[in-house]
Amino acid sequence: TTPGLAYATQAGAFDAGVMISASHNPFADNGLKVFSRDGLKLEDAMESRIETIILDPAVATPREGAGRAVPDDALVRRYVQVLEQAIPAGRFSGLRLFLDCANGSASAIAPAVFRHLGAAVETQGDTPNGRNINLDCGSLHLDGLAAQVREGGFDLGLAFDGDADRCLAIDRRGRV
What we know:
By secondary structure, the protein is α/β, with parallel strands linked by helices. The protein has helices spanning about 1-10, 45-55, 75-85, 110-115, 145-150, and strands spanning about 15-20, 30-35, 95-100, 120-125, 155-160, 165-170. The protein contains five helices and six strands, in the order H-E-E-H-H-E-H-E-H-E-E.
Protein backbone atom coordinates (compact mmCIF):
# COMPACT_ATOMS: atom_id res chain seq x y z
CA THR A 1 0.00 0.00 0.00
CA THR A 2 1.11 3.60 -0.39
CA PRO A 3 0.99 4.14 3.40
CA GLY A 4 2.92 0.87 3.78
CA LEU A 5 5.59 2.08 1.37
CA ALA A 6 5.92 5.35 3.29
CA TYR A 7 6.42 3.32 6.48
CA ALA A 8 8.82 0.84 4.84
CA THR A 9 10.98 3.52 3.24
CA GLN A 10 11.67 5.08 6.60
CA ALA A 11 11.74 1.91 8.71
CA GLY A 12 13.94 0.04 6.24
CA ALA A 13 16.44 2.90 6.05
CA PHE A 14 16.10 3.19 2.27
CA ASP A 15 17.16 6.25 0.28
CA ALA A 16 13.78 6.37 -1.46
CA GLY A 17 10.61 4.41 -2.05
CA VAL A 18 8.73 4.19 -5.35
CA MET A 19 5.09 3.16 -5.70
CA ILE A 20 3.85 2.16 -9.15
CA SER A 21 0.17 2.81 -8.85
CA ALA A 22 -3.00 3.75 -10.66
CA SER A 23 -4.32 4.96 -7.30
CA HIS A 24 -8.05 5.18 -8.02
CA ASN A 25 -7.74 4.95 -11.85
CA PRO A 26 -7.55 2.04 -14.34
CA PHE A 27 -4.21 0.23 -14.62
CA ALA A 28 -3.36 2.02 -17.87
CA ASP A 29 -3.05 5.23 -15.83
CA ASN A 30 -0.28 3.84 -13.63
CA GLY A 31 2.22 6.39 -12.48
CA LEU A 32 4.91 6.77 -9.86
CA LYS A 33 4.76 8.12 -6.32
CA VAL A 34 8.20 8.70 -4.85
CA PHE A 35 8.94 8.91 -1.13
CA SER A 36 12.00 10.36 0.58
CA ARG A 37 14.02 8.42 3.12
CA ASP A 38 11.83 10.08 5.77
CA GLY A 39 8.76 8.34 4.35
CA LEU A 40 7.34 11.59 2.97
CA LYS A 41 6.11 12.15 -0.58
CA LEU A 42 8.59 14.20 -2.58
CA GLU A 43 7.84 17.83 -3.37
CA ASP A 44 6.23 18.40 -6.77
CA ALA A 45 9.32 20.17 -8.11
CA MET A 46 11.55 17.19 -7.27
CA GLU A 47 9.04 14.76 -8.80
CA SER A 48 9.05 16.87 -11.97
CA ARG A 49 12.87 16.76 -12.11
CA ILE A 50 12.83 12.96 -11.74
CA GLU A 51 10.13 12.64 -14.42
CA THR A 52 12.20 14.77 -16.81
CA ILE A 53 15.20 12.50 -16.28
CA ILE A 54 13.16 9.32 -16.72
CA LEU A 55 11.64 10.57 -19.96
CA ASP A 56 14.85 12.08 -21.37
CA PRO A 57 15.84 10.05 -24.46
CA ALA A 58 19.48 11.13 -23.97
CA VAL A 59 19.70 9.20 -20.70
CA ALA A 60 21.06 5.73 -21.37
CA THR A 61 18.78 2.77 -20.78
CA PRO A 62 20.13 0.63 -17.93
CA ARG A 63 21.73 -2.65 -19.00
CA GLU A 64 19.66 -5.83 -18.80
CA GLY A 65 19.48 -7.08 -15.22
CA ALA A 66 20.77 -3.80 -13.72
CA GLY A 67 18.01 -3.61 -11.16
CA ARG A 68 16.10 -6.19 -9.21
CA ALA A 69 13.27 -6.31 -6.75
CA VAL A 70 13.94 -8.09 -3.50
CA PRO A 71 10.90 -8.93 -1.39
CA ASP A 72 11.26 -8.19 2.31
CA ASP A 73 8.54 -10.14 4.07
CA ALA A 74 9.91 -9.14 7.48
CA LEU A 75 9.41 -5.45 6.69
CA VAL A 76 5.85 -6.12 5.49
CA ARG A 77 5.16 -8.05 8.71
CA ARG A 78 6.48 -5.10 10.75
CA TYR A 79 4.09 -2.76 8.94
CA VAL A 80 1.15 -5.11 9.51
CA GLN A 81 2.06 -5.24 13.21
CA VAL A 82 2.03 -1.43 13.35
CA LEU A 83 -1.49 -1.46 11.88
CA GLU A 84 -2.64 -4.20 14.23
CA GLN A 85 -1.24 -2.38 17.27
CA ALA A 86 -2.94 0.91 16.35
CA ILE A 87 -6.25 -0.49 17.66
CA PRO A 88 -6.64 -2.81 20.66
CA ALA A 89 -6.86 -6.50 19.67
CA GLY A 90 -10.43 -7.72 19.64
CA ARG A 91 -11.81 -4.19 19.31
CA PHE A 92 -13.86 -5.27 16.27
CA SER A 93 -15.15 -8.50 17.83
CA GLY A 94 -18.67 -9.18 16.63
CA LEU A 95 -18.36 -6.77 13.69
CA ARG A 96 -19.41 -8.19 10.30
CA LEU A 97 -17.28 -6.35 7.77
CA PHE A 98 -17.27 -6.49 3.97
CA LEU A 99 -14.08 -5.20 2.32
CA ASP A 100 -13.63 -4.14 -1.29
CA CYS A 101 -9.89 -4.18 -1.87
CA ALA A 102 -10.09 -2.75 -5.44
CA ASN A 103 -7.92 -5.60 -6.74
CA GLY A 104 -5.08 -3.50 -5.40
CA SER A 105 -2.48 -3.41 -2.69
CA ALA A 106 -4.92 -3.68 0.23
CA SER A 107 -5.76 -7.21 -0.97
CA ALA A 108 -2.62 -8.61 0.59
CA ILE A 109 -3.05 -7.26 4.11
CA ALA A 110 -6.41 -5.59 4.89
CA PRO A 111 -8.47 -8.77 5.41
CA ALA A 112 -5.86 -10.23 7.75
CA VAL A 113 -5.52 -7.01 9.77
CA PHE A 114 -9.27 -6.66 10.30
CA ARG A 115 -9.58 -10.36 11.21
CA HIS A 116 -6.76 -9.92 13.72
CA LEU A 117 -8.79 -7.11 15.28
CA GLY A 118 -11.73 -9.49 15.69
CA ALA A 119 -13.96 -8.70 12.71
CA ALA A 120 -15.69 -11.37 10.66
CA VAL A 121 -14.52 -10.39 7.18
CA GLU A 122 -15.71 -11.11 3.67
CA THR A 123 -14.09 -9.58 0.62
CA GLN A 124 -14.39 -8.69 -3.02
CA GLY A 125 -11.82 -7.17 -5.34
CA ASP A 126 -9.08 -9.18 -3.66
CA THR A 127 -7.51 -11.00 -6.64
CA PRO A 128 -5.22 -8.48 -8.33
CA ASN A 129 -3.67 -9.55 -11.62
CA GLY A 130 -1.95 -6.32 -12.65
CA ARG A 131 -4.73 -5.26 -15.00
CA ASN A 132 -7.92 -5.40 -12.93
CA ILE A 133 -7.06 -2.73 -10.36
CA ASN A 134 -10.15 -0.55 -9.70
CA LEU A 135 -12.04 -2.41 -12.45
CA ASP A 136 -15.69 -2.02 -11.40
CA CYS A 137 -14.62 -2.17 -7.76
CA GLY A 138 -13.00 -0.08 -5.06
CA SER A 139 -13.68 3.39 -3.73
CA LEU A 140 -15.04 4.80 -7.00
CA HIS A 141 -17.49 1.95 -7.60
CA LEU A 142 -19.53 1.73 -4.42
CA ASP A 143 -22.84 0.37 -5.75
CA GLY A 144 -21.76 -3.29 -5.63
CA LEU A 145 -20.33 -2.93 -2.13
CA ALA A 146 -23.45 -1.13 -0.91
CA ALA A 147 -25.64 -3.96 -2.23
CA GLN A 148 -23.41 -6.62 -0.63
CA VAL A 149 -23.53 -4.85 2.74
CA ARG A 150 -27.31 -4.35 2.68
CA GLU A 151 -28.24 -7.77 1.32
CA GLY A 152 -25.67 -9.65 3.39
CA GLY A 153 -26.59 -8.02 6.68
CA PHE A 154 -23.10 -6.63 7.24
CA ASP A 155 -22.43 -3.93 9.82
CA LEU A 156 -20.02 -2.01 7.63
CA GLY A 157 -18.39 -2.01 4.22
CA LEU A 158 -15.02 -0.48 3.44
CA ALA A 159 -13.81 0.27 -0.09
CA PHE A 160 -10.15 1.03 -0.73
CA ASP A 161 -8.65 2.50 -3.85
CA GLY A 162 -5.91 0.65 -5.71
CA ASP A 163 -2.98 1.81 -3.62
CA ALA A 164 -4.99 1.88 -0.38
CA ASP A 165 -4.40 5.50 0.52
CA ARG A 166 -8.13 6.18 0.24
CA CYS A 167 -10.98 4.37 1.96
CA LEU A 168 -14.72 5.02 1.87
CA ALA A 169 -17.24 3.49 4.23
CA ILE A 170 -20.73 2.09 3.64
CA ASP A 171 -23.12 1.75 6.57
CA ARG A 172 -25.43 -1.24 7.13
CA ARG A 173 -28.15 0.49 5.11
CA GLY A 174 -25.85 0.88 2.10
CA ARG A 175 -25.23 4.60 2.56
CA VAL A 176 -21.83 6.18 1.90
